[in-house]
Every structure is written in C-alpha cells, then in structure tokens.
Known about the structure:
Elements: H1 12-25, H2 38-45, H3 49-61, E1 65-68, E2 72-75, E3 95-97, H4 103-112, E4 117-118, H5 131-144, H6 159-168, E5 182-185, H7 186-198, E6 204-209, H8 213-222, E7 225-232, E8 236-237, H9 239-248, E9 251-256, H10 270-282, E10 287-290, E11 315-320, E12 331-335, H11 340-350, H12 356-367, H13 370-396, E13 402-403, E14 411-415, H14 422-431, E15 434-435, E16 437-438, E17 451-455, H15 462-481
Parallel strand pairs: 4-15, 6-7, 6-9, 9-10, 10-11
Antiparallel strand pairs: 1-2, 3-7, 5-12, 7-8, 11-12, 13-14, 14-17, 16-17
Helix pairs in contact: 1-3, 2-3, 5-12, 6-12, 7-8, 7-11, 13-15, 14-15
The structure holds pyridoxal-5'-phosphate.
Amino acid sequence: xxESKSLKSSPLYEQVADxxxxxxxxxxxxxxxRIPSVRQLRSQLGVSVTTVLEAYRxxxxxxxxxxxxxxxxxxxxxxxxxxxxxxxxxxxxxATPVGVGSLVSEILAAARNPExxxxxxxxxxxxxxxxxxxxxxxxxxxxxADVNSNxxxxxxxxxxVRRRIARRSLTWGGSLTAxxxxxxxxxxxxxxxxxxxxxxxxxxxxxxxxxxxxxxxxLESLGMKALEIPTHPRDGVSLEALDxxxxxxxxxxxxxxxxxxxxxxxxxxxxxxxxxxxxxAQAQIPLIEDDVSGDLYFDANRPKPAKAFDREGMVLLCSSxxxxxxxxxxxxxxxxxxxxxxxxxxxxxxxxSNPVLLQLxxxxxxxxxxxxxxxxxxxxxxxxxxxxMSQAVSQFxxxxxxxxxxxxGFLLWVELPETxxxxxxxxxxMQQNISIVPGPIFSTTQKYQNCIRLNCGYPWSREVEQxxxxxxxxxxxxxxTA
Length: 482
Ligand SMILES: Cc1ncc(COP(=O)(O)O)c(C=O)c1O
C-alpha cells in the first residue's frame, strides 16, 4: 500500500497529473474531450516534455484518459462498462427493536489490525490526511497557550472553532452563527445527543435502508426502534414511502444521511431535500441530519444539506472532521435548531466538554486556508479511488454483480448475484487478510445477504487491485458452488 507518499511533497509529474485530473473531475474537460497536447502543457506549465508524458501515463493508468494513436490523449468515459446499479431497496415496513450483535465489533477490530487489507470499515488512508501539518499547528498552540487552555470548555464548546465551523456554512449558502453550534466528541456524540433530545426509549426512528450500522448501534444503546424506509442508491430515501410511514407509524424522529449516505453513497436531489424538510416540519417530526461526508463531493459544487431548507429549527445538523481531516481529534458538532438547549444539557451529562487544545488546533487550521486546499486534493483522490474500485469490481466480480455510482464520499455498495452469501464471502476474505463489510449488518432484519460494502479510502495501487481480484474470485467460487 502506498502509504508513505504525502500529497504535498508529490513529484512534479504527479502534480501535473493532479491538475488535469481536477479539470476532469470538475467537468471542465468531459468524456471524449482531447486534453492539451504535450507541447501545449509543457509551455503552459513551464515543465519538461518528460514530466508531461509521465503525468499523462499516470492519468492513463488511473483510467482517466486514453491515448489514441497519432491523435493524442482523450478523456475516458468514467462509466465505461460498469455493471448496472442496484434497484431501490424494499425493507419490511415494520418498526424493529435493534440488536446489532458482535459482528460489528469484529469488523471494527479488523480496521485496527495492520495485517488486514482495509476494504471494510469506512476509514480513510492516513496518507491522505495532513496529520503532520495539523499536529505542528497543535504543538505551536500548546507552546503559546496560557493557563486558561487547561479548563473545562463547557457547552456549547470552544468559541473560536464554533465561529470557524459556522463560517463554513457559507460553502452551501447557509448562514449559521457560532451561537447555533455545539461542539461534540465526533459525529457519533452529536447523533447520540440529538436523538436523546428528541426521543426516548421505545420510540420509533426512521432510517434509510440499508442503514449505517453505527446508527443501529446508537439506536440499540438508547432502546429505540428503527423503521427502515426504501432508499434509492442514487437519490436516497423515497419520499413517497416516508410519507406513508409517518402516516401509519408513530414516528418520533428521522435519522438520515441525505448527502453521501453510508453505505449507498446516495445524495438526495436538492428539491427532495426541500420537500423532506417541509413534509417533516408539517408533521412536527425532527430530522437528525448526518452530514459527515457532505464536503466530499466529486462535482463542482458542494451539495446543500437539508438544513439549508430549515425554517422552523426542526433540523438537527450533525457533522465532524473525522472523514475529512482528523478522526483522531474527535471533533464533531451539531446545529440542533430549536433543540439546542436540550442538546447542551445532554452534553454536560455526557462528556461535559471537548479537549480545548484540539479544538483550537482545528480552528487555526480552518482559518489558515489549509483546509480548503487539503479538501480539494482529498475530493479528487476519492473520486479517482471510487472510480478505480468500480472498474476493478466490474472486471473481477461475477456476472450479475451490481454497483452504486456515488458522487461523493469513499464507499461503494456492491450487490452480488443472489446465490452469493456475503457472510461466507466475509469469512473467506478474512482468511486471506482482507476485510470487507457484509450486507446483513446494514439492516435490523439482516437483509442484504448478497451485498457488501467496500471502502475506497486508500490510494489505488497494485495491492488494492490484487485484493479486489481475490475477492472477485472468492465471490465467483461461492456463486458456482451455491
Ligand atoms: C455516516 C457516518 N456518521 C458518523 C460516523 C462517525 O463519525 P465520527 O467519527 O465523527 O464520530 C461515521 C463513521 O463511519 C459515518 O459513516
């Protein structure tokens, strides 16, 4: 695995390749377009012919461009020969008490095991995070901090970082203020606090289907029931099904990821988000919105969260820096609308405060402009990694496999032929030191027996390709013997 390569210090040809790749990801260069000739780019960028040629070879090996004899390099179709997408899900319309079982702990343990190939848990490669830079900011802050840095930073949390977080809402046209933000220990704490603020044990909470097993863990620990709603792999939760569900069930809250859901990677169109917020506001049902991957979009613009359409303070927006910057700093936050007072009280009872210095370090990192620079590179890296994973699955997995088309984040949902038992595939893959996540843990009723979720958080390499090849062979063998 190519872990040692820092994006910042990458060789010149990679920087050139990054520039062209960005034009492709942003849609400036589109499928079939001829990319600038070697000579043009050489004089535009003031680099050597060899550097440009190496950059183009790299782009070719990443599947972004193709060479046409006597003609030059062209942008390749990114959807070329991909298997079809899965259909909208069809969960049972029953509110179910949640029991997650030990498999989730086993999968998370595999994520900590350096011997395991990390295609399971949704974790990003440490090589893609600016950890050393952020740590240097932290060290500088610690060196200059006075005695007031060693206090309880009581709810709503550190003002500097809340101000920075609030300002970032401008990227989606929002106008959050520091006063509306409460900092938490990761997004998991935000979700916990918000659920406790709006519901109690035994209450019915609407979730997507398939649903992130972390949500199920929270609902289980709070003794709440999950009601899974049909979810489209591209457009997210079905509003029609949701409307029917809130008419027929005593729904207390919705816990959804409208932007780049886990595991589907679905992103609700803007008009659906607006309709969702209006429908729930009319029924006086709070929406707890997980936006942890919202900054990881592949297109030119950041999708608006549902919170952008909230007029009544009924949307509790939850996020963190875990997927984009620093899972180890455990900085999350929520803008809980009219439920903020309850959330603040619950934060006192839960973990009281976040560590002061870690909040200050992230505030400084956001202020310096380093964050946007880093995000641009990260989004581009994930777009390529998801693309390569999709192509590899299409190449190595048995006929009849379907895959999602995420437009952000770093997860791929794979539906295998019905005869493939994903738990069996999971066990066989573990024996080959490859971790994956089997489908049944994304549902309260162990649906999705023939599905798996793949993590695309690591830079593409021969080793990743080989691991996907092994998985495909195992899946093929299981399909043949079933
Ligand atoms: C959708 C979603 N929400 C929340 C989390 C947890 O976020 P944090 O690490 O900030 O607690 C994850 C982690 O995988 C996630 O996928």
